[in-house]
Design a protein that fits this description.
With 171 residues, the protein is of the alpha+beta class. The protein has two domains: 106 residues, no CATH class; 61 residues. It contains six helices and seven strands. Strands 1-2-5 form a three-stranded antiparallel β-sheet, with no helix packed on it. A two-stranded antiparallel sheet has the order 3-4. A two-stranded antiparallel sheet has the order 6-7. Helix 4 crosses helix 5. The N and C termini lie far apart (56 Å).
């Protein structure tokens, strides 16, 4: 999220390309490739997120024009901390924690939203390969190791599906 630039978003197609990540090192911030080749991926965005991103871009552009920074370039960060500067991952996490506290929400870490997303996909019935690809895992095995317990709850549905298939089979 910290490394996203406007050229990775295609709001007309409703997609975002994950091409880079931002690493915080002792020497400072470093843009790098995702952990694995599977980490580079294109993700479809829900329509409401596309709408939110269009509004975010409009507001960001208004702010830039009002402060004399000019138009956005394709290389500008989608979520800048300062003009031309990305959020440091630890600073973004701290800001998120402050927001959660200020809204009196249950304590949750920013990274946990990734797990909530994966859990929602699994609960909606997406298969492990689709979830794995969306998360950028190198293999569905990684996804199963982390989220396998959520797929296990589908066993009763599997039995019903087989029962229905066997009842409908010719005798």
């Amino acid at each position: 999220m910290c490394a996203l630039t406007w050229n990775t978003l295609d709001l007309d197609a409703g997609t975002v390309r994950v091409e880079h990540s931002l690493e915080q090192t002792k020497a400072g911030l470093r843009i790098k490739s995702p952990k694995s080749r599977h980490g580079k991926r294109t993700i479809s965005l829900p329509a409401n997120v596309v709408d939110i991103m269009r509004e975010h871009r409009r507001q960001l552009l208004e702010l830039r024009l009002a402060t004399g920074l000019g138009r956005l370039s394709d290389d500008d960060y989608v979520f800048p901390h300062l003009p031309g500067e990305p959020w440091r991952p630890d600073a973004l996490s701290a800001a998120f924690a402050r927001l959660v506290r200020s809204r009196k929400l249950p304590t949750i870490r920013l990274h946990a939203l990734r797990h909530s997303h994966a859990s929602a996909l699994i609960a909606a019935g997406l298969d492990v390969i689709a979830v794995s690809r969306r998360l950028g895992h190198g293999s569905p095995t990684i996804t199963l190791n982390v989220y396998g317990h959520l797929f296990a709850s589908k066993d009763a549905a599997a039995a019903k599906a087989i029962d229905a298939a066997m009842r409908g089979a010719p005798k």
